[in-house]
Amino acid sequence: MKDLTGLALDAASSQGAEYADIRIVRYNYQNVFARDEIIRSISESESFGFGIRTYYKGGWGFASSNVVTKEEIKKIAALSVQIAKASAASVKKIVPPAPVKSYVDSWKTSYKKNPFQVPIDKKVEVLLSTNQEMLKVQNVIRAVSDLGFESEHKYFASTVGSYIEQEVMRSNASATAIARKNGEVKTRTYQVAPLNIGYEHIEAVDMPGHAKRIAEEAVEHCMAAKGPVGNKDLVLSPSHLALTIHESVGHPTELDRALGFEADFAGTSFATPDKLNKLKYGSEIVNFICNRNKPHSRSTVGYDDEGVKTGKYYLIKDGIFVGYSTTREFAPMIGEKESRGCAYADSWSNPPILRMANTSLEPGKKGSPTPDELIADTKDGILIDGMGSFSIDHQRNNFQFGGDAFWEIKNGKKTRMLKEVTYQALTTEFWNSCDAICSPEFWKQQGVRTCGKGQPMQRGQMSHGSAWARFRNISVGGAQQ
Q1: CB neighbours (10 Å) of residue 401?
Q2: pLDDT, tens digit, for every residue of 121-150?
């Protein structure tokens, strides 16, 4: 691999590139899907190839191939430089990319059991056992579950002298019960947090052990009263807040969106650089931190796809907007000297683009309320668990979120289940209404596995952690019972 990467860098430099890097990557995928008491599909695939990125007088070039030979690497390196030179012709003002240090290193996800070495029969048993437990509950008409695994083995080298080898392992699972009663069909999903970890993650969560509860809540959902219309206090679980964080904090603080260079799939951003260190994004207890070193989080790696060593940084500190996710290309555009290591490509065939890191709401201090205490302190509210539908405008400012399950809170008690609940708010109004976050022992992370961005579209993956939190006086929609 060192010979091949060295050949690519020499070929790009000889064609006039001021900078070049190459990624040679092998991906493996496996998915097992069960419906009721039948395994509906088992799929496995592999992808192997390389991509070469070059820089010339303000212009970037990229080219790739799945033919990993010396002759092909020379040809693709020359093509990448040709594209960079063509791109440079349209550059009006050259802003050189932020410098990057040289690293020779290897890094891998920490895991105990390689999921690709676990027999399929064992995975089938987990899924069928989970579905059987859900189907035992009266009025459950369908049960579906799945297991998914990914591995990514990457060799990166650049003309600054870096040579980095990385191995990433990912595991995820889910189970959904579908119930029918009183003329209603409703669902309830148990989403195993997608993490960078081995098969031990699946064994630890005990999917069959959660199946009965999920199924019973799906039936209860069929009989639930319709959600109210008006203003309510919201008590939100970590599994619900993950998507709200992703859409209303993660995307608006991607610098390419804030500068107007990116709009695909998630729009631009209201959080423009003139608001940096000024905008009161949330209440004083709201702190958002990005961390690409958090063990087992979905976007955790040792180095990004520009060879930048990853770390952590704040987006929101004590409620104030203080930072962006950046890459080498965009950091200098707001006067920053270093990238925050947020470049990622979902394939050897795509160039790295700016992707949000693992973005999490910090928990309350030790001694902050427990979820039960938060509910006991809420007079008129709604508890929301799990991810559901969402809608947000192109500036990431005006949004509406649903969820997977809802319960009424009356006079400090969790009472009946509700259905068809949505809430609406402006991003900064919502986060400024946060008046309580539970203590650190209730902090959990959930994740997003299919965040689309760019043309051609790329799939991003990242974790979003939080503890239970309360938001005061939020507009809630739905039909009046």
Answers
A1: 26
A2: 999 999 999 999 999 999 999 999 999 999
Q: Which CATH superfamily is domain 2-223 in?
A: PmbA/TldD superfamily (3.30.2290.10)
Domain ranges in the chain? 2-223, 226-477
307: left (phi over 0), alpha (psi -120 to 50) or beta: left
The pTM of the full predicted model, rounded to 2 decimals, is: 0.96
Strand 225-226 with 230-236, pairing: unpaired
Number of residues assigned to the chain? 481
Contact between 278 and 342 under an 8 Å Cβ cutoff? The reply is no
Least-confidence region, from 260-269, 347-356, 399-408:
260-269
Tokens of 279: 């905008």
Contact 476, 232 (CB under 8 A): yes
Rg (CA), the chain: 24
Tokens linked to 82: 């040709």
In eight-state DSSP terms, residue 303 is B
Q: At what angle do helices 70-88 and 2-14 cross, to 10 degrees?
A: 40
Closest CA to 353 of 273, 266, 295: 266
Helix, coil or strand: residue 187: strand
In angstroms, rounded to a whole number, what is the distance separating the alpha carbons of residues 188 and 100? 47
* Residue among 197, 192, 193 at smallest CA distance from 169: 197
Nearest residue to 24 (alpha-carbon basis) of 76, 61, 59: 76
